[in-house]
Fold this sequence. Notes:
By secondary structure, the protein is an alpha/beta fold. It is built from ten helices and 14 strands.
Amino acid sequence: MTSMCWKLELVVPAQHGEQYCAALEPMFPVQRMDVGEHTGLGHIYCYADGEPENGAVDDAIRQAAATVGEKVPEYDLVLLPQIDWLANSQANFSPVLAGQIYIHDNDHRPHGGGKLKSRRPAAIEITASVAFGTGGHSTTYGCLMALDRLAQQRIPPPGPILDMGCGTGILAIAAAKLFSQPILATDIDPIAVETARDNIYRNGTAGQIVAVQGPGYAGAQVRRAGPYGLIIANIMAGPLADMASDLDRHLMPGGRAVLSGLLVDQERQVLAPHLHRKLALEARVIHDGWTTLILHKKRRGGGRHRLRGRGRTPSA
């Protein structure tokens, strides 16, 4: 896919990065933020295939700065050269190893090159796309490590699995490689859903995963396929906190949730509403200033018997 691409860069305090990303998202659907290990600053990179309307970027950044009560930051907006961005992304792809999960493209397949040891069976092939999730970002990596932790501890989900905000589908595919439960992957972005479906088919998991477009927990498929034994949500701190009651309602007793997309400083914001609903913090994965939480919804009465799956198989 060859196209013109606009790139915006700005540096803000990391704890306020979410507000700036949210304000810019209508104009720049592809975003990432890197956090300086010692500076506490977030370097935000935003991309769009069309030039923003005159003054729209200034207005969005000014509004975000007013919301967090700080000086309006400077930014750079440039038109990048006209190249094949998907091919360029693929050429710069670096394989990721997260526990027993190996993320690779078609140039780094484990067979023939000896790159994948036999004790690491979960190989996932991902193609370049504009959807979020290739395993390289700390939030995706944290989720992969959390799933690997559950698998290594032999804690299978007691029911179906939900990947909320699935992006490329990488986390749903990883869950399919590690667990035998049916999986529903959902995203509000139709491009993400199409990308996820391609990756699901490519990795031979189409019989286990159904990917659908929908409005989060309000989606009909999400409501029908639950309750869930495992919910994975790699989104942003604000939505995670807002959806705590929805997560609790859709997570079956004995189930677990893997939550990411939050900075270390945002952990309390996300954790508090979930603890209020009696979910317990089981573990956390911290990587490059980002936190992934593993929460456990304990069964009432403290029973020790493992609850068998009773959710419905997802359907498109």
